[in-house]
């Protein structure tokens, strides 16, 4: 994605002029805070800036006054999100809250290989009250090797006590010249032939969001290397089959954060999209009820289909009065995914009578290790494991309880078994096997 590929990698490259001047200058001269709060709407460069701060703090070669080198191991791993001392927490997903709870313990540990341990907490306003309290206690007495970078689209939902502990930077929305600058950088990088008037039109369409500008450019570049004003004006987002299939797969996994991330990444024509999805789900509903005879496109159960259709129908009706085009759809999807998630937990509890006996020999800590260590191999595999449970060890075989058939299918793929067994071997320090049990 252009937005990721052409993230500014130095302070000089930051597109937001105010941020470049204020935050950038103080960073270059090594005036660091122990906590930053980055405020701004989506796609305005908060995450980019957060990673840049982390690089300035930890770059192996940088001297005061210099930019980060972007070549050392630390710079590289921060840029691709794998640095062990830069911990990114998404407060909007459930895991964020748990992470914050044991944050107070974890921050005491020294960084593994860098000068600073950097915690980037995205959408920090989504934290629960108890998580806020844990965070506040840490912010009040931060260890000297820890720097917090909090980012939010909604600063009004943040407790004053948290804000007052941070150095606050307001990103506002990208100005037209700033977005033009960012779009030009990507166009140059991709060796595209884009007219000045076309770039300006893209920047206008992006409406203050760097991310949207990159997305529009990417969409145009997929068709042609030469982009003219007329191409930009003709651009109408479409719903493709691949779009739909990706989305259905995400729906089945019921991970609200992933679903929303996907929707945000698509620049969807919302009305047409809801129509398409509703048609498919309705068809599946009829198939499930035996009214129509065909192969369903999803594995969703009748009740799930009914609930989802109701919510999409409501979202569709709300499209006319909404302030953000995609909002009713997102609200519907979050509501749906979350009710399903609750049910899933209940099912698991019934299936496992006593957790202490059930996970004998392979406790929570090892399980979390397994989830974490699987991630670098395959993100979606780790996500599927997350909704499964360790049942126990039988000799050198770990038995894992799985709730859904499509999860079982995924986990049983030989390449996935290989990954899991390899990771298990690392954790247990002996050759291990894995066996799945459908719950
Ligand atoms: Zn470096």
From TrEMBL:
Q: Which UniProt keywords apply?
A: ATP-binding, DNA replication, DNA-directed DNA polymerase, Metal-binding, Nucleotide-binding, Nucleotidyltransferase, Transferase, Zinc
Q: What is its EC number?
A: 2.7.7.7
Q: Which Pfam families match?
A: DNA_pol3_delta2, DnaX_C
Q: GO:BP terms for this protein?
A: DNA-templated DNA replication
Output the superkingdom of the source species: Bacteria
One GO molecular-function entry? metal ion binding
Gene Ontology CC annotations of this record: DNA polymerase III complex
In terms of SMART domains, this protein maps to: AAA
Q: How does it assemble?
A: DNA polymerase III contains a core (composed of alpha, epsilon and theta chains) that associates with a tau subunit. This core dimerizes to form the POLIII' complex. PolIII' associates with the gamma complex (composed of gamma, delta, delta', psi and chi chains) and with the beta chain to form the complete DNA polymerase III complex.
Indicate what this protein is called per its UniProt record: DNA polymerase III subunit gamma/tau
- Which organism is the protein's source? Candidatus Gottesmanbacteria bacterium RIFCSPHIGHO2_01_FULL_42_12
Top-level taxonomy: Bacteria, Candidatus Gottesmaniibacteriota
């Amino acid at each position: 994605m252009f937005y990721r590929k052409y993230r500014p990698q130095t302070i000089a490259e930051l597109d937001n002029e105010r941020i470049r001047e204020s935050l950038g200058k103080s960073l270059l001269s090594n005036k660091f805070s122990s906590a930053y709060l980055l405020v701004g709407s989506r796609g305005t460069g908060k995450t980019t800036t957060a990673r840049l701060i982390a690089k300035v703090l930890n770059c192996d070669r940088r001297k005061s006054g210099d930019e980060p080198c972007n070549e050392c191991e630390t710079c590289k791993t921060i840029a691709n999100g794998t640095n062990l001392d830069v911990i990114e927490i998404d407060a909007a997903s459930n895991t964020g809250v748990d992470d914050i709870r044991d944050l107070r313990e974890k921050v005491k540990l020294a960084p593994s290989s860098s000068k600073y341990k950097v915690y980037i907490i995205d959408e920090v306003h989504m934290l629960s009250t108890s998580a806020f309290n844990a965070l506040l206690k840490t912010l009040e007495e931060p260890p000297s090797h820890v720097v917090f970078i909090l980012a939010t689209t909604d600063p009004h939902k943040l407790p004053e006590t948290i804000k007052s502990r941070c150095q606050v930077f307001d990103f506002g929305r990208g100005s037209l010249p700033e977005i033009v600058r960012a779009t030009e950088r990507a166009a140059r990088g991709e060796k595209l032939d884009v007219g000045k008037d076309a770039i300006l039109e893209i920047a206008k369409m992006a409406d203050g969001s760097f991310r949207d500008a990159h997305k529009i450019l990417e969409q145009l570049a997929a068709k042609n290397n030469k982009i003219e004003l007329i191409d930009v004006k003709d651009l109408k987002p479409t719903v493709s089959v691949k779009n739909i299939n990706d989305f259905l797969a995400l729906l089945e996994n019921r991970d609200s954060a992933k679903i929303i991330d996907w929707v945000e990444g698509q620049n969807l024509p919302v009305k047409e999209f809801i129509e398409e999805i509703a048609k498919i789900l309705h068809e599946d509903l009829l198939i499930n009820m035996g009214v129509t005879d065909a192969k369903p496109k999803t594995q969703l159960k009748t009740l799930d289909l009914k609930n989802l259709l109701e919510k999409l129908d409501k979202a569709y009706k709300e499209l006319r009065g909404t302030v953000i085009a995609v909002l009713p759809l997102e609200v519907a999807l979050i509501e749906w995914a979350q009710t399903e998630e609750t049910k899933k937990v209940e099912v698991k509890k019934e299936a496992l009578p006593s957790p202490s006996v059930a996970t004998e020999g392979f406790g929570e800590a090892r399980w979390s290790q397994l989830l974490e260590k699987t991630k670098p191999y395959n993100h979606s595999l780790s996500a599927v494991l997350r909704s499964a449970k360790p049942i126990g060890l039988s000799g050198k075989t770990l038995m894992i309880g799985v709730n859904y058939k499509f999860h079982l299918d995924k986990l049983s793929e030989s390449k996935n078994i290989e990954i899991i067994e390899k990771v298990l071997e690392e954790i247990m320090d002996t050759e291990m096997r894995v066996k799945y049990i459908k719950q």
